[in-house]
Structures are given as C-alpha cells and as structure tokens.
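MODEL INPUT / OUTPUT PAIR
PAIR INDEX: 1
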Amino acid sequence: MAEEKHHHHLFHHKNKEEEGPVDYAKEVKHHSHLEKIGELGAVAAGAFALHEKHKAKKDPENAHKHKIQEEIAAVAAVGAGGFAFHEHHEKKDAKKEKKEAEGGHHHHHH
C-alpha cells in the first residue's frame, strides 16, 4: 500500500543514499555544458530583444506588441545569464571537489 512516489525535477538531484562514487570529470563537463547553454540562451534572447526594439521603430502600428516582446526577451536574457553564472560556479565547485578527491591541494611542486 505504501507506494513510493518518484518526483521528476528539472535538475535531477539525487538522494545522497542513492549515489555511488562521484565522477568529478563528468560533473565538471555537465556544468560546463549547462553554462554554455545558458550563455547561448542569453545571447539569443538578447538578440531577439534588439530585433523587437528595431521592429517597434519600423512598425509603429504594432509598436506596443513589439515593446512587450522586447521586454520579455530582455527578462529571458537576464535569466539565462543568471543560469550561466550559476552553472559557472557549480563547475568551479566541481573542479575544486575533483582536486580534493584526487589528494588535496598540491601547492609545492619542486
């Protein structure tokens, strides 16, 4: 009767009990990939916002619609930029964890 529910989350975080050994190289690559996607999303949304701004000037009859679309695209660009920034820090943390797992910090190489 006690049916276990599985929730599907956007970022697929697992319970610590379910995890095996962490593949840090894979973690770094994953966050690097998501960072690039965020950057591309920010650039695309920013370009679309500029496009809509231009359309608002060229098409005064529908200027209000274009202004709204420009504002939505600008918000999307900021959100995607924030996501890229977040993933950049996740990547840095994964690199740090990888280094620590490989035997700590080796500052003195002679």
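PAIR INDEX: 2
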Amino acid sequence: MTETAIMDAGAPQHHVMVLPFPAQGHVIPLMELSHRLADCGFKIDFVNTEFNHDRILKSVQNKGPIPEGIRMLSIPDGMDPADDHTDIGKLVGGLPAAMFSPLEEIIKIKKIKWVIADVSMSWALQLANTVGVRIALFSTYSASVFALRMKLPKLIEDGVIDESGNVKMHKTIQLSPPIDSTEIPWVSLGSTTERRRANILKVINTNQLMELAEAVICNTFREVEPEALALLPNALPIGPLVALMSKLTGNFWSEDQTCLTWLDKQAPGTVIYVAFGSSAVFDATKFQELADGLVLSGRPFLWVVRPNFTQEIKEEWFNQFKQRVAGKGLVVTWAPQQRVLSHRAVACFMTHCGWNSTMEGVLHGVPFLCCPYFSDQFCNQSYVCNVWKTGLKLCANEQGVVTKEEIKDKVAQLLGAEDIKARAITWKNKACASIGEGGSSHQNLLKLVKLLREG
C-alpha cells in the first residue's frame, strides 16, 4: 500500500473511506462527492488501484496545491505489470482477492467507521461482516439501471436472457425508460461468452449482499428519474455532482486548457463538442466516418481523441486531418468537460451517453447527439431521446457504422430543433434547482452527512 497525502484539514471528527471502481467514469463522480464531504468536515481516504493512482497524480502535476481534506491511497489491482489494466473484464476478476485484505487493514488501523463503495465494487459489502464497518453504496449509473440490476435474476428466470447474456426473448422491459431486451447492460459487457457469464453471475451474487448497504447514493436527481427512484426505497439522489474547477477531479489524462481559449473565439451556440468517454474504442472505418462527418457538418467542432481511442489510424493521416481542419475544428487529448459544456459557444454534445457525461450535459442544458458504445449507455440514450426528449440518436448502418451523411443530417436536424433546445434548458433549470439551497438533491446531501456522522 502506498499513500500520498493531499492534506489533513486539521483534525476532522469523522473519517470516511471512498472506494471507486477503477474506471474514469467511476472515479470522477466519487471524487466530486468526496469534495462535498470534505467541505462538510469529513476526512476522506480515497482508495484507487496503484495504476490509476499514478495516472491521476501525473495528470495534476504543475497545477498548484491539491485540495484539503482528502488523502489518496493506492492498492494493487491483482494484475501483472505487463497486463492491460484497461481490460475491464480481466480487471474485475482479480480485484476482490487483491484489495480485500489491504482494505481491512486500512479500516482497522485508521478506525474508519464508514465506507462509501462503488456499486461495481459491491463485494466490499462483506467488510461489514469482517470488520464491522458501515457501508453506503454509490451508483455511478442511473437509478433505472440500478433497479434493472436488481431485476436481473427475474429476467433470467423469465427466459428474457440466459446466464451468459444471450437474448432469448425480444421484448420491452417496462421500466422508466422502457428498455429493449437487446439493450440490457450486461448483454454487451464482456468480449466472450465466458466473461459475460462471469459478469452476470457476479451481479447476481453481489445483489444478495445489497441489504448490508445502509443507503444507495445516486448521481441523479428526483425530478429526472421519479419512477425509477420510487423502486429504490433507500436511495439518496444527490446529483448532478459538479466538478469544481479549483478541485482535484480524478482525471486519468491531463486536461488541455487551450481548448477554452479556442472556444472563446467561436460564435455562441455553434460548436459541436465530441467526446466518447474513457472506454469507447473506434476502428478505422468508424473513426474516419466520424472525422469526415464533422467536416461535412460545416460546423466548428471540438473533438476529444484520447490516446487509446483508436489503434488503427495512421499517425500521418491523423496529423494531416488536424492540419486540414485547423481553424474550423480542434482536436485535443482530454478536455475540462464541465467547463466546455458550460461554454456559450457549445451548441450540442456528441456523446457515448455514459451516465456521468449525461448528467453533466443535463446540468448545462446542452442538447445531445447520442452514440452509445456499450453497457448502460443504451438505457441512457433512451432517457435522452424518448423520455426527456433533449437529443437525437445517431443511427448506424448494417455494418454498425455511423456514416458521415448521418452525422451531417442529425447535426442539422438537432441544431434546427428549437423544441429540443427549450427542453434542454428546462431540464437544466430543474437540475440546478435540485442541487441549490433547499433543492431535493441538496436536502438528500444533508441527510447523507447526518447519516455518516452517526458513525
């Protein structure tokens, strides 16, 4: 175990461990929650895998002092140094064995009374039995998907899918939003049948531990998911969680701040912001169609292309593309997303529909162009396009490719849809009200603080 002190804010009375799943979309919202709790006087131990711990610290080098109240800890993830630490399927299998004993040790030594564990790390619920710690779960996906997770055994029993994630019955599952059986998150998680089966069995087995959680903290808000939240009696929706610009965000890559200066030079409501999160991977055909589609749209664009977004594009071609679009389009490795989404120049958000990105888009009132990649992202797309009606779906052809013509047409359609823009602003206002003084999420945050102080 290694430890890097951020700062001890004096001697806070209450001590909480925060345990995210080792993926970007999980670390960021839990870091945002940690800042809220630190501001309330809690001392936070934030536990990453060693691999991600190093990435985060490198990404914030030369950015001045790191905020008070949080201490960053790291534990091995059970993988060999030569392994691909971004291989989620392989990573999941080794985490419990690698992390459980070190977590017990930290809790005992520091006399921690509360652990806030990512739902995707729900094996940590067993700590309640082994070291007597109290546990709250944190859902990094929607309340609807959390409710669907709890229904997974029944879906298998009813023959909708089997234990390997194969769809056996095409039907619409009546949740809000309605979910097609082909878009159940666990159907697309895992590159092989064996991995999908292992993932599904893990979900089912850990569901049985859920009663050990004293609360389920959700990065959502009551007004945006009322029906789904009604199915989760111990849910505390406290979102949308906002990344404060002066705080450590937990990014794995350094943010390119120059894109903000570029945005300042663009006309209001003209820029397409394109970002597909930390996990999506495009082959050469999909990548080039996207590139050509952005050019064909005739709009200025800001495109985030992280280092492992594609392995098939030749560097020479990509450099020529960036030179060709210079002045009209900007490509960066990673962006300060909330500052981008709040910028007056941004017209829409082309996104993979990860829940974190979805909540950020809602909070800033930005219309969506939806292009989900896997897991819960199809459910989130359904919310955007069918329930909130704040965006449009990018439809792939029979080869699974979103063509440049489709991109051009949907950009034009979305940016001409005043009704969609108006609904996006309506949801922005509701989201802002929820986290404001007296709002539903603000009240739930106060309830969480009171609960954690009972420890």
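PAIR 2 NOTE: The mean pLDDT is 91.
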